[in-house]
Amino acid sequence: MNSHNSLISDTLQRYTPEKDSHRKRVLMISESNSLTFLEEKFREHPDYEVINESIEAIQVMGVRHYIEAISDAIKEHKGFFDGVTGFFDTPNAIAAAIAHLSDKIAPPLESIARCQNKLYCRMLQQESVPEHTPAFASAEDYAASKFAITPVFAKPVRAAGSFGCAIVHSAQELHKKINNERLMLQQFNQPYIEALTTVFGNSRLLQSAGNCNQYLCEEIIAGRQFAVNGYIVNGEISLHGIVAEYFLPNSKSFEYHECPADLPDRWRYQIERMVQRFVAHTGLDNTEFDIEFYIDFEKDKLTIIEINPRAVVQYENLYAMASGDDMLTTMCALACGDKPPTRQASTYSLCYSCELRTFEDQHILETPDTDNLSAIYLSYPDIKIVNRIPPGIKKLSESKRSIDTYRYCMISIPGNSREEILNILADIKQRLNYRFSPA
To answer: How far apart are CA 80 and CA 332, in angstroms?
Structure first.
């Protein structure tokens, strides 16, 4: 038995139900850094037994091997899993592929591929909400001087976390950028392409994935950044809420996210109208979604940045604490064909998701351990701390980065005032056991 098959066999044994339960079983695929708080969330959940798996472990097993093995197990034994779901782009695509092959409820893979392809998705925006779509072109058209705007914001057709994004002033500058980032981008996208290939072979759908290592150029969007989150079931859209996103001074990297966003009703109405028209046009269904956008208040203009056809793990605690919306249970309900949970009374008036970053590359000497985190949770039981340093790396630069910083931690903090939250943040930062040295 080769190593792939041995790992798959061990995983199937770990997944196999040990006893009958009234709870539905859900496979939830995420990144390894998110597993701890997901396990805590569902340990005593009354309705769903959640089995967590990481994209890192799946890549070791082999994406195709994993998808095929889990799909076969579900088809052979209906109780193996009642639903499959995922956070982050590639885990979500793998989850949708498994659900598709095992006849479970899932968003259409075609719609995921359309939304994940930023160039194709811009075309969908142009068709459905042209007033909220920036001017854009492929990198090839920009290089051939078919796009008159300069400078432009260049970004990969498929990437995440602002990786590979930059303002460029010429075709030569863009060409150099693409060459420098080609290998990391290919490595990032390979598991995603493999997930779609497992289901559709070499069909036309893969045209939406096949060019995901290329680049898109668009006008530079001005204003303040926000995100709207919700889900769609059988064509009916419900919103979790709107998050305001704030950048570090003199940077294009996030410093924190605030929920709920403080916006006048007229802007909320315009956002809801944009969501209804745009999401319906993507073909998404039975899924969470996240739409990022800018509002230029001076020009009275809303411009879409992108749509993510899945939930945002970073916002889970924001909505749970500040709006009473249980995003995690909603994901399980969508995967199993159940009615999503009703919104509860919120515990706090605000919740921030704060990002710890450094502008310089660093050697990683120490990260927070269980004892360190447990002591902080004793003081602040409603916060969430997620270490964002992937396992095994020695320097921050060994992981994909944002435009101008390296993110190493996310801290979700609820409270009833900005001052209260920032005071808690300052205390937590002082107590976290991160240690770095200059690279």
So the answer is: 15
Q: What pLDDT is attached to residue 3?
A: 66
What is the domain partition of the chain in residue ranges? 3-106, 135-219, 350-438
pLDDT band, residue 163 (cuts 50/70/90): confident
What angle do the packed helices 3-15 and 63-76 form, to 10 degrees? Answer: 40
Place of tokens 């052979």: 76
Class of the CATH-defined domain 3-106 = alpha beta
CATH code for the structural domain at 135-219 = 3.30.1490
415 in Cβ contact with 438 (< 8 Å): no
DSSP 8-state symbol, 404: S
The pairing of beta strand 24-30 with beta strand 83-86: parallel
In CATH, which of 3.40.50, 3.90.1170, 2.60.40, 1.20.144 is domain 350-438?
Answer: 3.90.1170
> Mean of the pLDDT values across residues 249-257?
90
The tokens for 397 are 């630069």
- Beta-bridge mates of residue 364: 436
d(CA 202, CA 182): 23
pLDDT tens for each residue of 305-336: 999 999 998 999 999 999 999 999 999 999 99
Q: Which residue has the tokens 């002082």?
A: 430
- Residue 311 CA, chain-centre distance (Å), reads 6
Do 3-106 and 135-219 fold alike per CATH? no
Amino acid identity at 415: G
Q: pLDDT digit string (tens) for 169-203?
A: 999 999 999 999 888 888 889 999 999 889 887 66
CA atoms in the 13 A half-sphere facing the CB of 4: 11
